[in-house]
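Give me the fold.
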Amino acid sequence: MEPGSILKYTNSAKLKITGPVTWLALPGRPVIMTGLDDVSAGDTIRTNTLTGYYADTALDLDAIAAGADFSLSNLRISYATTAIKINGRGGHVLSHAQIVNCGTGIVVTNATNAIRDILLYNVTTPFNGNASTLRGEHLTIDAGTTLNGNTSGVTLLLTNSLVTGVTTTNGFNGSGIVVLSSSSGVYESAGAGSHYLPKNSPYRNTATATINSQLASELKKLTTSAPRVLSPGYLLNSAITYNQTAQRDTDTPDYGAHYFPID
């Protein structure tokens, strides 16, 4: 999967993978999987109003058939009935991803998954599956109905994560977890990002639970701070130096998912 690949789905399409994957996406060039009517990325194919779900399953990964674990990063999935399914094996890693406006986020069957630095927004059921374990670190889960769709089938372990505006939140364990009935006042928006933390947020510099060492290193290059946004029509008519405005998370980690800085 090449950097910057964009897949647009319709008619309940599915991408099923039964072999090993070489995943080459980069922070500035993620793989995007979205609906046919999404004009925010890639070529414009159709301009109907974005509504409902397009893909049946945006990414259906059969690890048993592949004979390999999957390691995916820098990924965004939108407008899918199910974003990701993984079947079998125990060493999968999904990191630095966004799942937005989907019916179900991640479905695992007879599998163990590490999910790190993930934003799930407006996903009705973020997690589901059978006979599986999901280990989530630094997740932001905002606006949903049922956090764990099968509490007897999916062991959900969360660390340093924010869960806001989800109606039913039972079926998880872990440490360093903030659960709030509403997202009001928790996040701020800038440009296309809507889950930055405000400057004086109580969820900054307070996530102390132990996390994966690689993720800990990666978070130091990421941010929960919004970039500076210049107003449309801004006129640059003299020399000016723009310094970094988004604080990198180099100290005690902030809760929840982080963004790649764009300043």
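The two ends are 27 Å apart (CA to CA).
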